[in-house]
Amino acid sequence: MIEGSYFHKFNGKIITNKKPGKKGTGMIMKRWASFTQEMSFRLSVWYAIILLIVFTGSFMIFSPLAARNLERRLERELRNEVNEYVNLFQAHGLQALGEQLDREAGASGTENILQGVVTPQGRNLVTTDTIHWKNFPIQVECLKQAAGQSEPVLTTLAVPGVRYKVKVAYARLAPERILRIAVPLRHEENFLQGLRHILLLIMAIVLGAVLLAGWFFLQHAMGRVVAVTNTAMSISTGTLSQRVPASPGGDEIDRLALAFNGMLDRIEKLVRSQQEVTDNVAHDLKVPLTRIRLLAETLATSPPAKIDLPDLAGTIVEESDRLLEMINTSLEIRAIEAGIAIWDFREMDMAGIIRKTAEIFQIAADGKGVALTLQDTGPAPILGDERRLLRAISNLIDNAIKYTPAGGRVTLSLRPGDETVVFKVRDTGMGMTPDILPRIFERFYRGDDSRSLPGLGLGLSLVQSIVHGHGGTIEVQSSPGKGSTFTITFPRVGSYLKSDARSTMH
């Protein structure tokens, strides 16, 4: 037989069942170590420690207070009893007092009370018991103190042979007569012991209930945290479509889940955008690079007599400039969106910039047969970077002229307000379909109708970046065959939006 295992047959097959050994113990220890590392376990342990400290502190404060209250009540009872005996002695003498003491001792039991009259030196004159209290000490100091004052003297001591501590009262009856009453603290100590047991039981029940409830809620809360962790681990493997489930409770973990999901949405959007940009860059770079390569092959393989060197060189320079423009524009958009672009913000008149740009494009519009109209409404002060504003406005006007057929019209208008400056470029060109509008500001995106026209697909993306860098907004309205209207809103100098524009300075 193999050590540590046994065999039995099942359907003709021999099955081996290994007995638990060191390997199983090691697995249990690993699971226990993993369990103790969980946040819910550690928090539960901390809760338990805090509860134990609170309960222990409360018990240490409450128990002495309860004992002291019981002792004070017994002292009041002893004082009342002493006053009755003193009055009885003064009215009827020692013999009547002794008889009353015997009756009280008989009713209570001689083992439960010691009563008598002693001299200041400790000699018994009258006593109710000589058996159970034979080891009672003579407290000379207390006797002398009681003989010299009218108030009773109370003390607590341990008497050999008596199970419980004893409360003793001494009171002066006459110059040589001291009343002594001793009562074991049986009921008080039993009550306190029972009270302690009850408190300990309550503490154990409350501690267990709190720990179970705390464990349940912690497991529930940590389970939601684990869901966030698992989602993050899934995302690390490339699954960007997963999201953390959020309940409608709106607590901290729900807000964490919503923030995490929002971050995932943004990351997924950026990754998708990056992939599209990469695809578009690869496609747009392929054409000029292919042309440059073909031109270079022509230079390398054709006889010099058959080559127009100036024309080929000009074409290569043109394609190279296109590549450089694409790269530089992409870098500038990236710098603006990343917040690392260097701005030259100054207070300027938006109307003057628009007039300057319209003058530049007037010749191009006339050459195509497009009417370019400027509706000037007076000064419109803004805080901006003149070089980038000229570039943004130029891109809008250039697009409007490019996509407007001969006989059409491009209208520029500026409307200054109390807090904003609104600039519009309206054309009567081909317009755009609703499926195109949401994507026109994406980098390298070009609609099917615009691919036959020259361009890089970066102009509107650059315009949007520059407008946002100035704290403004850009919107577009368009209908196929009816033209498009681009509306840019800038914060005016001195308005509450001025701080937003200034926050973009770097």
In short:
This protein has helices at 22-36, 39-108, 140-147, 186-236, 252-301, 309-338, 350-368, 386-402, 459-469, 498-502, and strands at residues 5-10, 13-18, 114-118, 124-127, 153-157, 166-174, 177-184, 345-349, 371-375, 381-385, 409-416, 420-427, 473-479, 483-491. With 506 residues, the protein is an alpha+beta fold.
Biggest sheet descriptor? 5 strands, antiparallel
In helices, the fraction of residues equals: 40-55%
The CATH class name of the domain at 343-502 reads Alpha Beta
String of helices and strands: EEHHEEHEEEHHHEHEEHEEHEEH
Measured between the Cα atoms of the first and last residue, the distance is 82 Å
Task: Briefly note the structural class of the backbone.
Answer: alpha+beta
CATH superfamily heading of the domain at 343-502: Histidine kinase-like ATPase, C-terminal domain
Strand order of the largest sheet: 4-3-7-6-5
**What fraction strand?**
15-25%
> From the alpha-carbon coordinates, what is the Rg to the nearest angstrom?
50 Å
Task: Report on this structure.
- Among the domains are: 90-191, Beta-Lactamase, CATH 3.30.450; 272-332, Orthogonal Bundle (Helix Hairpins); 343-502, Heat Shock Protein 90 (2-Layer Sandwich), CATH 3.30.565.10.
- Helix content is 55%, strand content 18%.
- It is built from ten helices and 14 strands.
- The chain has helices spanning 22-36, 39-108, 140-147, 186-236, 252-301, 309-338, 350-368, 386-402, 459-469, 498-502; strands spanning 5-10, 13-18, 114-118, 124-127, 153-157, 166-174, 177-184, 345-349, 371-375, 381-385, 409-416, 420-427, 473-479, 483-491.
- Mean pLDDT is 78; it is low at 1-20 and 496-506.
